[in-house]
Structure formats: structure tokens, C-alpha cells
Amino acid sequence: MSEFSGKVALVTGGAKGQGRNHALALAEAGARVGIVDVCRQFDSCAPMGTEEDLRTTEAMLKERGAECFAMVGDTRSSSDMRRFVDTARERWGSVDVFVANAGVAAFGPVAEMTDDMWDDVVGANLTGVATSIRAVVPVMKEQRSGRIIATSSSVAREGGPNNANYAASKWGVIGFVKSLAIELAPLGVTVNALAPMSVSTDMCHNDKTYRLFRPDLADPTEDDVRDTFASLNPMRVPWLELEDVTAGLHYLASESGRYVTGASLDIAGGWNAYHSA
Ligand SMILES: NC(=O)c1ccc[n+]([C@@H]2O[C@H](COP(=O)([O-])OP(=O)(O)OC[C@H]3O[C@@H](n4cnc5c(N)ncnc54)[C@H](O)[C@@H]3O)[C@@H](O)[C@H]2O)c1
């Protein structure tokens, strides 16, 4: 029997990128999986998922034989998130693993930051994480079991140029996770953050980000930015592959992680060793 057989896992931001990979891995391990994605581009942000992406993930879940559903919804909306959680509960009776993965990025110096760049990033990355998790907390409290995993980032616990909105939102995720972990620990519900460094998804690989990393070039390519990305961590890895992050998720969601709560799991080639917090 697979490790998550009979378990119910929900993943936000499941249309593509890390959310898709987490959903597929949980399905391959036997879970029933629900995914949600806003499927709409926020103008200020790096390329986001589409409804076609969402349906592709759903088809990939079905190919793996998983019981699943996919819905369009915004993690910032409590009614969308209640609908997401209620759908799982009505179909399958419980929610065992909740992955608050959805997020966006819009990088730039504070002096040039528009209201949208602030609102979109803090809205999706912090309010969206909190709103989606708040929808599942009553279910897990009643069950007296559950695993909540939110995606933060290596850039949460440090400052950096062009990063104020993103770092503030991701630091906020760690504060939220730690506080909720203490509230839910007596019930056996764990709450943790994943803190990956750059991951090989559209959020990392896009023209705007490449230009920030190589302002000396008019039209930098992946090869042009590789060394600059790699210089951020002592292992000199430019970016993680999806499976590197999903391995961390798997640990936090699995039986092995049952006594891990309030943690922020760095998957970062040692980038985290530079942090003082
Ligand atoms: N890629 C990186 O370098 C990197 C590094 C560290 C952390 N992260 C974080 O990992 C998570 C996943 O990002 P990714 O790399 O897979 O990027 P991605 O852009 O490929 O996927 C993110 C998905 O989240 C969805 N989304 C965004 N806001 C939403 C909202 N309000 N409601 C519902 N869905 C929403 C998007 O449409 C998209 O499909 C994010 O929280 C991101 O901040 C990314």
C-alpha cells in the first residue's frame, strides 16, 4: 500500500510549477488530490498559471489513477477557499494534508514599487496563504489530525535589493506558521514552512528576472544568469529542481515528520547558513 493511500491532500497553486509537482507526487503515493489555482495573470507578476495548465495537471493526476478534482479559485478569497476545502470534505470526508503553495513574484526597487506590485505579492503570498489555511484549520481541529505545509522562501530571512515585497510576504509566512503550529500542536496537527531557494519554474526563468540578475545585458539567457544565481549559495547550485522541493514536502507530510512542527525547512544549497535568523 502506498504511503498516502486513502489520505486526502489539497494543493494551492496547482496549475503548474511546484504545486503541480507536489500534487503529482502525492497522487503517486496514493493520495486523493484536490488542486486550486487562480488561473489569471496579475499584471505586475511573473507568468502565472492558466486554466489550460490547471486542466493539464488534472489530466496528469487522472493518468496516475488518482481520485482528484481541480478548481479555479483565488487563495485570497475566503469563500473560494471554503469551497475548495468543502469540496474535498464532501467527496472524501477529511483533509489530511494541506499545501499552501500558491504565490507570485514581482521584483523591483522600493522606490519604483507600484501599489499593484505590493498588493499582488503580499496579497497572494501572505494573505492568500493565511486565508487558505484558515479555511482548513476547523476541519483539522475537528479531526484532531492533519499536516499543513506553507511555501516560504530562502529570501524570507534576509534583506535584498528588489525584494522588499517578496521578502516581507515570505517572512510573514514563517511568522504565521510558527504561531499556528503552537495553537494546533496539542491537537496533533503540524504546521511547517518549506523555504526553497530559486526553483526551476517560470517564477525563476523569465525575462524580467533574468534582466535583474544581468542588468549589463539587453537580452540575457538562462546560460547568462546561471553563474549569478549559483553565486547566491555556497554549494553554487543555480536553482533547485522540482523534486528537491517535493522531497521536503513529502517528509513534512509523512509519518516520519510527525513530531516536526513550527519549522521552516531550508532547501537551499546552504544559502540559509548565511542567515542570522
Ligand atoms: N520558483 C522559485 O524560484 C521559488 C523559490 C522559492 C519559493 N517559491 C515559492 O514557491 C511557490 C510556488 O511557486 P512556483 O515556483 O511553482 O511558481 P509558478 O508561477 O510556476 O506557480 C505558482 C502558481 O500559483 C498560482 N497562484 C498565484 N497566486 C494565486 C492565488 N492568489 N490563488 C490561487 N493560485 C495562485 C499561479 O497561478 C501559479 O500557477 C510560490 O509560493 C513561490 O513564491 C518559488
From TrEMBL:
CDD domains: SDR_c. It comes from the Bacteria. This is SDR family mycofactocin-dependent oxidoreductase. Residues 7-197 form the Ketoreductase domain. Pfam families: adh_short. The keyword RNA-binding does not apply. One of its GO terms (molecular function) is oxidoreductase activity. Keywords: Oxidoreductase. SUPFAM superfamilies: NAD(P)-binding Rossmann-fold domains (SSF51735).
